[in-house]
Amino acid sequence: MKNKFKFTTALLMSGILGFSACTDSFKDFNATNGAYTDELQKYDNQTNLVPFATIQKGIIYQTGIEGTDWQYQVMQNLAADMYAGYFHDMNGSFNDKNSTYKLNDGWTSAMWTTTYSQCMPIILNSEELNTEKEFPLFNALTKILKVTTMHRVSDYYGPILYRNFGKTNAAPESQEQVYKNFFEDLASAVTLLKNYKGAETFAESDIMMPAGKRTHTQWLKFANSLRLRLAMRISNVNPTLAAQEAKAALDPDNGGVLEKANETVGQYGIRNPLGGVSAWSEVYMNASMESFITGYKDPRLEAYYVKAVGGSNEAQGNIPELSPIAGKFKGVRQGSGVPDNRYINHSATSITIGHKIIIMTAAEVWFLRAEAALRGYVTDKTAKECYEEGVKTSFSQWGTAGVDDYLQSNATPSKYVDAFNAAFDAEPTTTITPKWDEAATNEQKLERIITQKWLAIYPEGCEAWAEQRRTGYPKLFKVVVNNSDKVAGQKIDTDIMIRRIFFPQSYKTDNATLYNALVSALGGADNGGTRLWWDAGKNNF
Fold it and tell me: Which domains does the chain have, with CATH numbers?
């Protein structure tokens, strides 16, 4: 059987950015489990397994090879992970770019370019190979993986090429249309998996599910959970469709959702790029996270970050601390714009290359159910019950004790005190507590749900940033310095904060037709201040 990759106009348009390093390394990416060659396809089931194995790695793009972690860094860590309030890079040479809203096109283009030049061609090939009739199992798995991969891209940029990818002169689809396509594909995948009666022929190449759970029934739970995630994403702009999809996702006849701490969907057994970037001393606690997690005295703190080393040394310019931070958990304020490495002795992430890469947890699903109950979409459990189960599941996932006391805590976020410059200090943004308050307004209940979800889905910054933009929670610190106006047409309001990532700017000259179509589908200026379709700017109940 010959390879069926289609190097169509859409693919060529995505490749002209010249992001060559990703392309060059992709031969190794495939080679991790064997390139998709004619020879391999002669072996039993390899035509299905090789693309399946490769597509999984493309969700949070990782080759699994040392030296390629920078791909994750530019695609996610210098954007979503920071804007979500999880991390900050202390490297002074980076602090005048994305951190201060002076967006770096090379970084912000990476999610788009890499996904379309490396991941979507394989997904397209798998769709054409694995028809619903001939290979229903792999057709369903491909649909789930496609939605998992591409909703992250849409949640960065807005309009994307989804159903139209691979077609000559394809037009981009609006985010509203893309989300409807996501739901259609997930509904189809659920039906296929519910009806599947065959063998589990994919387990040897399954890196997404924990050992012992590499079954089509577990993938069915993931499909429903993902459907629920996306349903809540659109709840402020299309509550009717959101309610419909949430109810379908939680319908027990459809196979269930993730519920237990040991059901984390991720990437198991391959190198975690976050740990690789951290080893370069470039992944530190964000000041917003410090405010919440230390204010709450959250027992998960030591599972998430390491204590600050503190002290003054040559590596950080011998800048003296205002007060000792050694042995404390200290974060870095986004947008300070400092040109040096003064924060190098602050708290780094505890994630190493050996940690599983987290894509979705059962704790997240419980918080999604809490919001669905709050909105009246489902009535099987109360918002309080789901909220508390979400916190308990997260504590169990991280092996942390003390959840009962935590759920009764009236602690509030703490003030951020910069180790070097009092001008960067910041008062806490909220008084929301871990303890549930049944007498609170729906808005306050939502803030409590989303704040705890944000803490629970660490360190997956793409999802955390999307939900923060959708709901406004948790309330993060604003940038100290806003340099967005130093790039023509890219003004971002400090108070409203960054709302999206702009399209690859080389398209303006290299493919004006595609660029203009994308901007038209966006319905606003191509800058970081334009809201996406699901970003209504308020929560509608």
Answer: 9-260 (1.25.40.390)
Q: Which of 309-318, 420-429, 454-463 has the lowest mean pLDDT?
A: 309-318
> What does the DSSP 8-state code read for residue 74?
I
Question: Phi/psi at 87 (nearest 5 deg)?
Answer: -130, 170
CA separation for the pair 482, 497 (Å, rounded) = 10
Residues near 192 by Cβ (< 8 Å), separated by ≥ 6? 132, 136, 137, 139, 140, 143
CA distance 126 to 142: 7
Q: Find the angle CA(489)-CA(21)-CA(24) to the nearest 5 degrees.
A: 140
Q: How far apart are CA 482 and CA 83, in angstroms?
A: 14
Contact 92, 340 (CB under 8 A): yes
User: What is the Rg, in whole angstroms, of the alpha carbon atoms belonging to the chain?
Assistant: 22
| Cβ neighbour number for residue 196 with a 10 Å cutoff | 16
By mean pLDDT, which of 111-125, 309-323, 370-384 is the weakest? 309-323
- Residue type for position 274: L
* Segment 498-533, tens digit of pLDDT: 999 999 999 999 999 999 999 999 999 999 999 999
Strands 284-285 and 87-88: antiparallel
Cα 504 to its chain centre, rounded Å, is 20
Are the beta carbons of 117 and 16 closer than 8 angstroms? no
DSSP assignment, residue 214? -
Residue 40 pLDDT > 70: no
**CA distances from residue 477 to 107, 142, 350 in whole angstroms, order as listed:** 23, 39, 23
What's 241-264 look like in SS3? HHHHHHHHHHCHHHCCCCCCHHHC
| Four-residue CA torsion sign, 416, 100, 538, 470 | negative
Place of tokens 């792999």: 138
> What Å distances lie between residue 496 and 234, 314, 327, 413, 491, CA to CA?
20, 37, 35, 21, 11
Distance CA 77, CA 92 (A): 16
Residue spans of alpha helices (H) in 265-410: 273-278, 287-295, 301-304, 362-374, 383-397, 403-407
Alpha helices, DSSP H, located in 333-441: 362-374, 383-397, 403-407
Q: What distance in Å separates the CA atoms of residue 262 and residue 288, rounded to the nearest whole number?
A: 28
DSSP code of residue 173:
B
For residues 139 and 135, give the distance between their C-alpha atoms in angstroms, rounded to a whole number.
6
Report yes or no on whether pTM surpasses 0.85: yes
